[in-house]
Amino acid sequence: MRKKWLKKNKQKKTPDDPASALTPWETYQKKQKQQSKKTNTIESKLPRLKELRHHHLVNRLVALLVTFIIIILIAAYFASPISKVGNLQVANSGKTTLSTQSVIDASGIKSSDLVINTLLHQTKISQRAKQAEPKIKQFSLSIAGLHSVTLHVTEYKTVGILLKNNRYYPILANGRVASSGSGHQIAGNYSVYSNFQHKQTLQKMVQQYNRLPSDVQNGISEIHFAPTKLNPKRIHLYMNDGNQVYATLESFSKKMRYYPSIAKQMKKKGVVNLEVGAYSYPFK
């Protein structure tokens, strides 16, 4: 009985892998189907890849073309006359004594200069113009059209006239003296400064003068620097009302404010001394 059971057990062979029951031909067919599915998946993706590559190539060509066109336009602009200053004019703010040519010369701008360089160096041009022409207080420029440049200028106010070597030079509100002088006294109600040999002394005098009320300023005809051993900063003034004034540079504006009230108390024309204290006496 035992032997028969063993024989029956050997005859029962149930395969664990279903593929092992396939014939070699069926196994080959199955592999071919699997390979075909993979091939179809790759081929389905190829049109999309080709489209993306084409789109990327077109974008690169457009970018290169735009860059090339911009380079050509820039080169053409710099090679053309419109890139250079073609028309140069001056616009003065308020009353001016400067000529158009003097402002242009001070700016240093030439017709051969590039407009873009002029714009980029506005600060440098402004500094150069102010240095070349002391009358210029404010300087700026603007571009109209393609290559028309306008210079905008504001001048310092003239506060007096410096008499030097028989020539009259305008004294500006900043204490500087104009470079151009005249053999004749400049028209206007300006005080005439004389004997000021040093720039620093003249600038201090102008600062003192600017602190005075306008009615006192208008009453001064001449200002002379007249130092002595006792007072090396003495100032001698000739007034439009016929009086003369002696004062000290450092205290000039402070004491000169009292001149109108002192002059009213004078019965005769004479001298007002403001060097030490404040007193007056008639001419001898």
From TrEMBL:
Location of the region described as Disordered in the Swiss-Prot/TrEMBL record: 1-39
Protein name: Cell division protein DivIB
Protein species of origin: Loigolactobacillus backii
InterPro entries linked to this entry: Cell_div_FtsQ/DivIB_C, DivIB, FtsQ_DivIB
Bias kind Basic residues: ranges: 1-12
GO CC terms, sorted: cell division site; plasma membrane
HAMAP family from the UniProt entry: DivIB
UniProt record similarity statement: Belongs to the FtsQ/DivIB family. DivIB subfamily.
Keyword vocabulary terms for this entry: Cell cycle, Cell division, Cell membrane, Membrane, Transmembrane, Transmembrane helix
Gene that specifies this protein: divIB
Keyword Transmembrane helix annotated: yes
